[in-house]
Amino acid sequence: MPINVTPIAGLSDHINDIRLRTARIVNEKILPDEAVLWRGRQGQASDEERAESKALRVKVQEKVKAEGLWAPHLPPEYGGMGIDFLAHAYMNEILAYAVGAASLFGVVAPNSGNQTILAKYGTAEQKEKWLLPLVEGTMQSGFSMTEPENAGSDPRSIRTSAVREGDEWVINGHKWFTSNGLYADFFIVMCRAAEAGGEDRPGQMMQVIVPTSTPGVIIERGIGIWGNASSDHCEVRYDNVRVPAENVLGQVGDGHRAAQDRLGAGRIFHCMNSVGQMWRAFDLMVERMLTREVHGGLLKDKQFMQGFVADSYMDLQSARLMTIHAAEKVDKGDPQARTEISAIKVFVPAAYSRVVDRAIQVWGAAGVSNDLPLAGMYLTARTLRIADGPDEVHRILIAKNVLHHYEKGGSWDFAG
Ligand SMILES: Cc1cc2nc3c(=O)[nH]c(=O)nc-3n(C[C@H](O)[C@H](O)[C@H](O)COP(=O)(O)OP(=O)(O)OC[C@H]3O[C@@H](n4cnc5c(N)ncnc54)[C@H](O)[C@@H]3O)c2cc1C
Asked: What pLDDT is attached to residue 12?
């Protein structure tokens, strides 16, 4: 079923135009060929079939580029659309409707997050050396922050050290869940900076570019997740890794702020992606109810099933409207946006889980099969409750911000 997109009253012509053109590509060029586009993913495809899939993906990407819809997260000087924040958010809910479509529009995590950080914090030389090849697709990258021995939900606990020795930084530490680690040419590594001899004193956070070919970068394993033997989320050891001083991104001390830049507003884009996928799951669920006969009647006429439609409708609408509300606050530079971002970071993945869970139930066995995108969505939705700050951390932040407001004598303006 194609995504049903019409112009939104009150939204600029520019954003409506992007939404409609994105939907046209999703509906005409991606959805009809979805099974072929991603055929190699389950590992059952022949070399010939994989080559055919790749050629088709390149064809779609060329169409996306010709339509001027390539890389919504990047400025034009790096081959991107150069669109504003809201336009990007509204575009994501459309492109995420199709499985894997973000990569067909030039947005591939974690490369896209690294591109954004390099565009913002990189020197001219760093952009030339790392950003351009990343944009051209001749290099791959990863973001290496989380550590097995320390709480990823508390970035202050990071222990990986970078000690300045002359014109070099010497990095020692242990990371895991560095996504894309098997393919990356370089990592952006979050460290604590220290002067030589002062390693036990916690230093300022910094991010540093580390080529994966540097001696001492040891990819220990691709961590198996969700029952699979391996993945590209890697455990990495940094053992006396030496990189030139010019590889620091921004200033020493900028590390935490740069991570927030990456995660903060990025959460709006992730939530709009989740909204797009919920939309797809909802359409699939309803489509099945209209045609599947059980016990002498169509699913659509059974009240349990009607409850699924009503509850999923409310989950989807509330998730979408909360996310748009948060996006508008970010766009206006409203200081309360932090609270809204944490609220959607908790609410949207949970709503996404519920909607996909019901869609799987409606489809029965087919729901958990690889014939439909629902099983993959289910795992993604569950993972989103941990990655990028677990639910509890965001709940705490919401409560702190709201309570602080009342303690100062104010109250919350829900209409603001
Ligand atoms: C598929 C996947 C891909 C990832 N990719 C990357 C990547 O590319 N780069 C990277 O650096 N990291 C990555 N991560 C790691 C991710 O960012 C961390 O898992 C996340 O930040 C949580 O950290 P943790 O796993 O150490 O959990 P912990 O910090 O140990 O927290 C465990 C649990 O404790 C609870 N908790 C935490 N704080 C509180 C509190 N204050 N009060 C009550 N309960 C609390 C939460 O339920 C939380 O889930 C990825 C993770 C996954 C699953």
From this structure: 96
